[in-house]
């Protein structure tokens, strides 16, 4: 993302101009825009004009509109952000107060005006505009009959393709059916890789599976590549990385990202560090349960005691519709930072973020044990389902 | 952009096409014949009639049976009982559950749940007292109903029963399946009568609204044919006796153990000694294995058939073979030992009645397999959690330590303590020293002088022969869990799996769940032998027509179309947590293994932490679950699956939870949350 301008008043209101450059920036934009903000962007609108004789013509006009956002829609697969709201700036084609839906486009500037730019939002802008080269990694987690082809970007894990094929088991005299099924499966995975992985962007392709599936698959793929003279695969052979995973389900990506070989390759992605943090939290919960807590109430009380060392919070909490709630979470983040604690905002698009979301979305490792929190939780958990 | 459509220039007929789905007939599109449609369409009215007929049939049955076992109170005849109807508070319920578990450990499945519950309550949750009571009752009972019970079985279907020629044969079989069976027969009736919550809904959940579409004649046809099918189900017991009375009992045995313990070799050798493998094949294997320098694998090749397995020298998928002993027809399921293939092993173990644990006696090898992280422990825990209670332990490769008694004792001592913890009773575990490669003490008594010095127990084959065959719930509604889908010869396709409950006949209509599609059974074969009927406990492959092969996958269940298997995405389970590296919290992503099904799931709620030995409630809504605790949790699965409450169908009520290649917990389904 490119930052065009930034004009923020002392009281926190103001506007920022941004140019999204890649699909991931849409995710950042999605996390920035909240209901009630004003967004200005260029868009296409079909305008009908009625001539004096009563005949009407309609034509598409490109114009710049400013709307107050009412609904926000994010398509994770296509990475498209749709903002719907009412027009608030006079325009020669569109009446004031008329509804319009903005599709934010890549490489076109949009301006976001907020009544209050809080620290979390500003941090998000900073992060989005960080020019550091991002490491995109493709990962294929597979087991016999099931594979997920995923794309891991710094703040998102996108499942590009899921392959689920029933492979007949081996049985007396029917071994070839098993092998045929297996080949069909490998072929499907290979096609998915060819279709969804762009070797210009992707640094490495991780192939992970239990047992020998990954080796067998890799062998099959290379054989096929040689057979069909597929330059793309042959040239990029060195980019494939075979690792062990326990299953072909999506959440085994977590294990893959903890693998030292993978860590070395993608150390700068958020995904790997998040997995590690969450793992640390769980280890703490096992060893010293009084030093690891989750759930809003516990965390707030721990914060009152200035006990929080590392706060993990899912960005889903900041996207909530309720402005009051968002304010509370922002205040919590600010206060933890003020008191020397570390705050990690997890992306809910990663596997670890998904898990944190399930775990009330907020968790913390404390500096010192607070056993009194543990005892008082009988009524505390009732709010969460 | 919907708001800004150009309405004036629109052709409205285009719009109607996609909007007007409701008034649109499905049949017009897909030109289905009415008879085809009848297969797929479910309607309430038809089922009510069926239900009525079924009830009607059963009313007569009921009276007969009432005469037969008037000695039982109506309470006693109920097989399972809804705990809620007892109005217990939570603590009592927990106590009750723990008592029941203990009792089950001791007496197994022989006594119906409700009897246990009654006794336990009577003795105010005192385990030992109620055990005494039940055992006393057990010894008394069989004598009373035995002579009377023989009659109804014959009465129900006089046409079929006379085939039982050997008189002394019949009473024996009937006596073994005393209570649950007679109860099971009237189950369909009972459900309607007492209105207690049951897993089998009377009317299918997904009723189609288009009842009128069905032609009248079709309906009548359906009804006419149903009683015929029903009849078969009613006298399932008689049929079972009829078909299998003279046959040898089928016993499914899963072979488990650490990788390279010699499971496949032991079984391969056993098969060779039994004469199940031709000399020619064996010679071929010997030559080929020699060629790649792995001669010791020649016997393992009998079971490891794929090229991959042979090259790597490990079993990857469950191998299958069978042989006959004096009293039994034994089907071996050779499970892979490698940690990566535990999902396959679970599939195999889920189909087994008993287990054979193979341990490597070589110094160092046994220890590495038995220590934390070795598969000896995990496998043993898994099979126990999957409901296997009888175990034989083959102490393999004892020839490497020169048949030393010391070594044998050392191993058995270690295993004994562990297996006791895992929940195996000492009396149900047998230890056999043997060697798979040399074939010592497999089918014949030992000849090795060193071994003869101190061992005079049975050989492996005798141990297998001595296993008890568990009772088969033949008369319950059909449940067949699918563990393989493949193209057979001829029309349709085949699914293979184990019948957990009930009977399946050629020509039966079955419901493929969780997709709830109707299919027809074209062919049945048991262990590659064609058959007209198969019973609970059998490993069968069934040729289906009426559904597409694409729409059936491993882990699905074939169910009785009327008493359907519940389909859900969320259920409550009581779990036992094994050794875990990180504690289980809310939102923990796990893989759930249920029969052959593997599905990703989340633990969405930690409901209660229970005391491990007493089952009392320790803490409500715990923050996390640590090692070795017992808890009640709610699990949400990504896709709908077929589960049953443990008290209804045991096999379909067991789940395993696994994370990152290790088993973290085993659970029993206590409640199914309707979604």
What do you see in this structure?
The complex is a heterodimer of chains A (385) and B (675). The longest helix of chain A has 22 residues, at 175-196. In chain A, the strands form three sheets. In chain A, strands 1-2-7-3-4-5-6 form a seven-stranded antiparallel beta sheet, with helices on one face. A five-stranded mixed beta sheet of chain A has the order 10-9-8-11-12, sandwiched between helices. A four-stranded mixed beta sheet of chain A has the order 13-16-14-15, with helices on both faces. In chain A, β1 (2-8) and β2 (14-19) form a beta hairpin. Chain A is flat. Residues 378-385 of chain A have low confidence and may be disordered. Helix content of chain A is 34%, strand content 32%. Chain A has 385 residues and is α+β, with helices and mostly antiparallel strands. Chain A has three domains: 2-128, Roll (SH3 type barrels); 136-268, 2-Layer Sandwich (Nucleotidyltransferase, domain 5), CATH 3.30.420; 271-383, 60s Ribosomal Protein L30, Chain: A. Chain B has 675 residues and is α+β, with helices and mostly antiparallel strands. Helix content of chain B is 36%, strand content 24%. Chain B is built from 23 helices and 24 strands. Chain B is globular. The two termini of chain B are 34 Å apart. Residues 13-30, 48-53, 57-81 and 141-233 of chain B have low confidence and may be disordered. Chains A and B meet through β3, β6, α3, α8 and α11 of A and α17, β2, β7, β18 and β19 of B. Chain A: One of its GO terms (biological process) is nonfunctional rRNA decay.
